[in-house]
Amino acid sequence: MESLTEKQKNADLEIFQFTDYRSFLQAYFSDRKKNHKLWTYGVWAKKLGLKNSTSILKVLNGSREAGPEITEKLVSYFRFNEKERRYFEDLIRLSKVTHDPARKMAIMDRLRLQHPKRKFTLLDDKSFAAISRWWFYGIRQLTKLKVFRLDPDWIAARFRFKVSAKEISHALKTMEELGLIKITQESALSLVLTEKSLNTTDDVSNEALKRFHEEVLTLAHASVRATPVAERQISGLTLAVKTEDLPRMKAFLRKMEDEFAVEFEAPKEGDQVYQLETALFPLTKFSKEIAKEKKEEGDHT
Q1: Alpha-carbon distance 131 to 30, whole Å?
Q2: Would you say 60 and 51 are in contact if contact means Cβ atoms under 8 Å apart?
Q3: Distance CA 210, CA 206 (A)
């Protein structure tokens, strides 16, 4: 079984970033698929030492929980250390507890103590998906257009970037279960946006948001070549700044985005859905970072 250096392949994917073990497994599979086109559930099952992909698929889609055998194989596969193992196994235990609030709270308290930041806020796999995948946001905005049709094939074809009708159907079902949309069937099947939103302030939600921005920035990269200049605006600015001004710079950009939305959002008259992604990040290192690197290099020597 392949237990070798899975952490080296997925250095940014840490179990402590998740509060739902399925979200972790799904995120891992998605990352592997993105970097290895031949990666499939069958290949993964084989590397886990399973006879076929049925068991892991049932765990991932929520039709069964991970039993002791699969749990042990996953722990071995990811090469979890003792802390990571306990956290992962408790996530599985938490998922299995449905009718015992006291036991659920006891497991959550244990998870909170095990977490490096002593924080544990539940975010299930459905919420994680709704925050991290770009087409969930795209669908919500697409529903505001007059031309919108509640048809997964139509929606998938409307997007410029690849997303399947199956993924759209799953997104619609997930959004309805989370209360983000309401599908009605009066005279004809239709969709209504609700006022509900997902909390994105905790560490786990931040991991989902990181994944969302990674996806969107990938789309922006592709649009440089794929979208005519007349239909896009991609520009940049490089400048020297004072680090102490960073909070003010971020507040300025947030205000700019709010004003942009007020000025240009046109849900009733709109005929397109656009994504505005503003990126502000350092190109250089702080002096203390350089000093730390030199020290570590000296210690290594």
Answers
A1: 15
A2: no
A3: 6
How far is C-alpha 284 from the chain's CA centre? Answer: 28
Q: Please write the tens of the pLDDT for every residue from 125-148.
A: 677 677 778 998 899 888 888 888
Neighbours of 261 (CB within 10 A): 10
C-alpha distances in Å from residue 69, one per residue of 14, 23, 27, 45, 234 = 22, 20, 21, 13, 50
Q: Show the DSSP H helices in 159-239 as ranges.
A: 165-177, 203-226
The reported pTM is: 0.61
Q: Are 44 and 53 in contact (CB under 8 A)?
A: yes
pLDDT in tens, 225-278: 888 989 999 888 999 999 899 989 988 998 998 899 889 988 778 889 999 988
Residue corresponding to tokens 């669908």: 139
Residue 284's Cβ-count burial label (10 Å; 0-12, 13-18, 19+) is: exposed
Six-digit token string for 190: 């239709």
Report which of 41, 43, 84 is spatially closest to residue 61, judged by C-alpha positions: 41
Q: Where are the beta strands (DSSP E) in the chain?
A: 181-185, 189-193
**Cα–Cα distance between 123 and 20 in angstroms, integer?**
7
Q: How far is CA 30 from the centre of its chain?
A: 10
CA-closest candidate to residue 134, choices 227, 17, 220, 213:
213
Q: Report the Cα 168 to chain-centroid distance in Å.
A: 16
